[in-house]
Each structure stands twice: as structure tokens, then as C-alpha cells.
Amino acid sequence: MIEIVVEDFKHWRVTARQALLAAVPPFGIRFRDPRDQPYLLAETELPPAAVKSKPRVPAAFLDLARSVAMHHDPQRWDLLYRSLFRIANGEHHLLDVEVDDDVREMRRMEKAVKHEIHRVHAFVRFRRTEDLGGERFVAWFQTEHDVLEAAAPFFARRFAAMRWAILTSIRSAYWDDNQLRFGPGVLRSEAPSEDTLEDLWRDYYASIFNPARLSVRTMRTEMPARYWATMPETDILPALIQEAESRVDVMQQNQPTSAAPFVPQSKSLTVLAKAASRCEGCNLFRHATQTVFGEGPPDARVILVGEQPGDQEDLQGHPFVGPAGQLLDRALTDAEVDRRLIYVTNALKHFKFEPRGKRRIHSKPTGLEINACHPWLEAEIAAVRPELVVCLGATAAQSLLGRAFRVTKERGLVLPHPVAGKVMATIHPSAILRMPEQERREAEYAAFVDDLRNIRSVLVA
Ligand code: URA
Question: 179 pairs with which residues across the strands?
């Protein structure tokens, strides 16, 4: 039996490939985890290549394998090799067989890993500390799977201007000087008391930048894993940070957020919409069902911008399909405008709401949230290049015309705009729906239809 101690996914990939070329069957090889008492394990050499042709492996398998590799189950490497061997030996479409036991197991692990990455993004709480080098933020977080390398880039994007560390018992991540680095894990039981955090953090920080400490493999050759827990540096590892929900998350509060890092350099609405579906540029994505991106012809001459998806839009994934959308449709028909010719979108792409019993009540976005989402609107405008952008309500107007613009004073005026060509703002259909007196509602509706007639003149020009 061949025994391999797997260092990480890259190492498994190289070794598994060698084993495949040597035609080693799954039952002839054991992949071991280094945490599985590596000092007791003897590695065995792989036999030389027996087949010449390079194995063809679908990219989807590699993506899946990357996630599975983060799972804590020590059997995962064997499972991956068995699946790889099957794929390379006649079962090229194995991943399509969702009922296959190996596929099911890999999917289960992938799901657990993705869930945990999401948990890290949602629940890590930083604590502010200072040392001679200035301000730092530290968080200790319990993870079951080795997800920190996958989860940390999110924090690097979001907290790019700060110096921070996330410590888990499996791995730790450090962001400094615009560089993300990883070091060994920190057991929570080794955490010193909170009041000594600042000294300890300084010492720990210094020790972690010793290059030899950055490679787990190097460390293992230099010192068996059973000694790690008693090494001098590990005595001083700061793994504190209480997880109490009451703790103020200083970074989250102070941090300006933006969708900008998520917006690709593309003029294709399909590419933009796909990227937007993964946007985590502000906190609104956490509770919304999905991103609701704009819809309509890519060469539309007019863009309509609402505020944000409502309850129905959030559930269905399309803009203006709920009650406000129905009123908008009626008004467009009355203004003799065909909605199918217009690109319809919102200033914010996620639904912001307050839960009230079983209902989700619309909540007004803050200026920070409007700004955070603005890059998506700008990208949509750059892709569609309309002649006229119509803002429905104050939020859309604020996104394009700034905070000082007042819809009540300047509604219906077609104004020049550096990015959007021409811009006009009018009332939001929800505002009409909310008006209690019928007479006022009807008057506002008529004025709304009048404003929308401006669209018709652009379309027929
Ligand atoms: N209100 C909006 O502003 N946009 C929608 O998509 C739905 C309701």
C-alpha cells in the first residue's frame, strides 16, 4: 500500500496525477492528512509512470475538488482520488450522476464548506488593538473546515485599508502592506487573557513573519507536529476575541463599503448580471434572497431606475414585478410607452427589509448603501449607453444626481448628465400607492404619466 501524507490541495493534485499516470488503483494508495499524526506515518514512493496519455479531467471536477479539499474529513483525499480515477478511466461524466455515492459525498462536503465560508464572512468579529506599528484588528473564530484561505480574500477586499488578522484553530490569515499571508492555526485554549492582547499580538505578529513559519510543510520537517502546541511562540498566541454578539464590530461599522471590487470590466449585461449575483459589496446581500439585476434590451434608449427590489422582486429575481411594478406598467401603457423597449433596473440590487412577524417590511437604504451599489448602476449605464435615464423617486435620483437634488422641485425636467446622457427624475410609483386620499392619488398618477411621456418622445425620435 502506498502512503502519501497530503500537505494541501496543490500537493494532492500533483501526487494524484502522478499516481494516475502510474495506474495506481484507488485501493492501492492511501492519502493521509498531516493532522492525522503525521510523525507516525511513513511516506512511500510512487511507482514510475505506466501510461503516457495525460488524464483529461473536467474543470468542474477541479472546482469541486478544491472545495472538498477544505473539508475536515480525513477520508476526503481518498474519495477525491477514487473519483478522479473513475473519471480518468471511462466515467468522464461521473459528476452528472448525482445519485452516485461518491458524487453525493463530494457534494455534501462542498456544501458544508461553502456554508462555512459564508459563516466566516457573516460572523467574524474583529477587535481593535494597537501596537508600535499602529492600529490592528484581530479576530478569533472557530472553524470546522480549513476554509480560511478561501474566506480571507473577502476581508482583504472589504478592509483593504486596515491591518488585520483572523485566527482559527486550523489556520490564521494576516493582511498587511496589501498582502494576504497565512500561518498556522491557534488553539483557543491557548488564548491568553484579554488584557494582555496588545503585547502578545505584537510578539505573535513578529513571529509569524518568520518565513520558515509560513510553510506548514517546512515546519513539519523541522519539528514534529506533536511539539507544536508547546513551542514558545504558541504560548503567546493571542486567540481571544469573545464571540459575544454584543461586541461592537468596529471594522464593520467604520468601513465604507463598495460594490466596486465585484464589478468586472465588461460591457456585457450578462457578464455584469452574473458578477452581481455574487456581490457582497455591502451587508444587504446577507438577508436578501438574491441579487435583482436590471433587465431589458442591451441597446435600450431609455433606462428606468427604481430604488431597490421589493418583497416580490426579491423572491422572483426580476425588477418591478410586484405592486409598484404593476402601477408602473399601467402608467407606461397610459403614456404610450412599451416597457419591452426599456431597460429597467434599481439603484440598489438587494432588498433591504425589517422582518415583522412573517412579513418583510421595506426599509429605506442609507447613503452608504446607495453609494456602495452605485458602481453597478454606472456599469449598466455604460453598457446600455441610453439617451435618457429616468429616476423613479429620491433614492435613484440621489444615486445619479447627488444628495442635494430634490425630486419635488425638479421632477419632470430633463437635465444633461455626464454619465447618463440626459436624466429626468419623477415620483416613485410606491409613493402613489401609499397616498391615502383617492383624489390626490389620481392627480399624482396623472402627473406621473405626464412625466413618463418624455420617454415616448425619446423612443419615437
Ligand atoms: N420598487 C422599486 O424601486 N423597484 C422595484 O423593483 C420594485 C419596487
Answer: 176
Pocket test for ligand 1, best of 339, 349, 430, 448 (most atoms within 8 A of CB): 430
- Cβ 309 vs Cβ 344: under 8 Å: no
Residue type, 11: H
Ligand 1 centre to CA of 306 (Å) is 5
Q: How far is the CA of 119 from the centre of ligand 1 (A)?
A: 29
DSSP letter for each residue of 386-431: -SEEEEESHHHHHHHH-TT--HHHHTT--EEETTTEEEEEE--HHH
Atom of ligand 1 nearest to the CA of 307: 3
d(C-alpha 313, C-alpha 311), whole Å: 6
Distance CA(459)–CA(116), nearest Å, equals 49
CA distances from 93 to 166, 192, 243, 324, 329 (A): 39, 51, 44, 46, 46
Q: Which three cell numbers stand for residue 69?
A: 479539499
Q: Which atom of ligand 1 is nearest to the CA of 346?
A: 4
Cα–Cα dist 26/140, whole Å? 38
Q: List, run by run, the mean pLDDT of 10-residue segments along the chain (461 residues).
A: 86 92 92 65 69 81 96 94 94 92 95 90 73 72 90 86 84 85 74 46 44 38 38 31 31 60 91 93 89 97 98 96 97 97 98 87 91 95 96 95 89 88 95 94 96 91 74
Measured from the Cβ of residue 191, the count of other Cβ atoms closer than 10 Å reads 19
Residue 185's pLDDT is what? 80
Spatial distance between the Cα atoms of 361 and 348, rounded to a whole number of angstroms? 16
What letter represents residue 137's amino acid? F
Please tell me the predicted confidence (pLDDT) of residue 130: 66
How far apart, in whole angstroms, are the C-alpha atoms of residue 152 and residue 157? 9
Residue to substitute in 284, 295, 305, 346 for testing ligand 1 pocket (most ligand atoms within 8 angstroms of CB) = 346
Relative to beta strand 421-426, strand 388-392 is parallel
pTM above 0.70, yes or no: no
The letter for the amino acid at 401 is L
CA atoms of 33 and 313, how far apart (whole Å): 46
Per-residue pLDDT at 204: 47
**C-alpha cell at position 131:** 501596537
Strand order in the sheet with 343-346: 343-346, 302-306, 388-392, 421-426, 415-417
The whole-number pLDDT of residue 118 equals 86
Does 320 contact ligand 1 (Cβ within 6 A)? yes
